[in-house]
Amino acid sequence: MQRLAYVSFVLLTACATNGEALDGSEQDTTATTYVDIQEFGNGAEDAWYGIRDKLNGEFDQVCGDTFCEGDFSNITPLSVFCSVTSKNATVHDCAWTFTASQHQVDPKLGSVGVDVVTYQCHFKPKTTGPKLIAALQNADDALHATLPGMGSIYDTLTDCFEHPIGETPITVQAGTTYVDAEDYYVSTASIARWTTGLANLHRGFDDVCGDTFCGSDFGDVQALDLGCAITKSTGNVKACTWNFGGSYGQIAKTGDVAPVTKTWSCPVAVHGTIGAMITVLTSTTDPQTNAIQRALPGGTSAYDSIAGCVTR
User: Fold this and answer.
1) Is the Cβ–Cβ distance between 311 and 218 less than 8 Å?
2) Is the pTM of this model over 0.90?
3) Helix (H, G, I), strand (E, B), or coil: what is residue 14?
């Protein structure tokens, strides 16, 4: 009887030291291997893309009244990555990436100062990949759902947003010659036209990104703010800069998710007035031409301006 018990102990120990413990936890990170959650099981990739879109949409609904009230009012979700053990799909680590930006026009020089950042927000539910996918898919509110071994994903974000990556303070000189495009107009109608032009430009980027800028490793590139310095006395555009952020996932040997994030600040060539620029971006005479591909005053489209910048 004692010999049988000894043999059973040896067999159990051998199984447990194969890299993954009997309870699913990792005991020897040098032996355990990790994969992306999307690689574990048929249909996992499509399911995870759906979860990413679901979480992104839920974040957009709450950001304006919560996280987006600080210096960075345009925090934008990128992608969600999770690593799982290769044999039993125990979740080891997850990370949700974000990007955000702000700009300021130098009223003396007419330059556009920018601060573009990213965030890597980690959370570690104690469950398996298939169970995590099912929990997030079935939750009415995946962002606020309590996950095994932790609170909600939402709970992890407050501290994360206190630690932007790549933050660069903006300094400007005193002056009165130039003003930001968003402050140039005072009438409600003119402000609305500028806002519409920006929205058309962003929509244009989204329409072409999948076949162009989002075709590289950074498949989740998001367009952020466009800042333009305008000569107050004439309305001429002095300079414009368009900001972007993107990410892709990597898994370290230890199983930790180590996303690569990147930002871009791209000059957009405009040689003319802000009024002429708005007319191009809001025109309805050629609905077949995407706003990002329309020639701006001076002859260069926004697409041509950023083509050599984003994903470079």
Assistant:
1) yes
2) no
3) helix
Nearest-Å Rg of the Cα atoms of the chain is 24
Task: Give dist(CA 229, CA 110) in Å, integer.
Answer: 5
Which range has the worst mean pLDDT, 4-8, 16-20, 118-122, 238-242? 4-8
Question: In 153-214, where does DSSP find H-type helix?
Answer: 153-160, 181-184, 188-209
* pLDDT score at 311: 83
Distance CA(310)–CA(312), nearest Å, equals 5
Structure tokens at 243: 């900001």
pLDDT in tens, 233-279: 999 999 999 999 999 999 999 999 999 999 999 999 999 999 999 99
State yes or no: pLDDT of 51 exceeds 90.
yes
Do 100 and 76 form a contact (C-beta atoms < 8 A)?
A: yes
C-alpha span between 255 and 58 (Å, rounded): 28
The SS3 assignment for 178 reads: strand
The first and second tokens of residue 169, run together, are 């303070």
**DSSP 8-state class, residue 185:** -
> What string of DSSP letters covers 60-117?
HHHHTTTGGGSS-TT-EEEEEEEEEETTT-BEEEEEEEEEEEEEEE-TTT--EEEEEE
8 A C-beta contact, residue 73 and residue 99:
no
Phi and psi at 164, nearest 5°, equal -65, 145
Query: Are the beta carbons of 227 and 239 closer than 8 angstroms?
Result: no
Tell me which H or E stretch contains 304: helix 302-307
